[in-house]
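Incident review: delayed structure delivery

Summary: a single-chain prediction request sat in the queue longer than the usual turnaround. Root cause was a stuck worker, restarted by the on-call engineer. No data loss occurred. The affected request and its eventual output are reproduced below so the record is complete for anyone auditing the incident later.

Affected input:
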Amino acid sequence: MKKSLITGGVAALAVMLFSGCVGLSIGGGSKTQTQTATVGQQLIDLQKAKEAGAINDAEYQSEKSKLLGRN
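Output delivered after worker restart:
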């Protein structure tokens, strides 16, 4: 009788652990955090895009003005 209770308890615990009912994080899991770039970093990226030829000077000036709040 005791052996079947222990076996049943271990089985129930295993089911809870594997189904996430207990809430233990085994293996670290994955957390996704979104980081927004600062205005300074956005300006640097904008300058790099201009230097790489991805945008022209007019586009650079327009986007720079938007970032600095001078629409």
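Verification: Helices lie at 2-19, 39-51, 57-67.
Action items: add queue-age alerting; document worker restart procedure.
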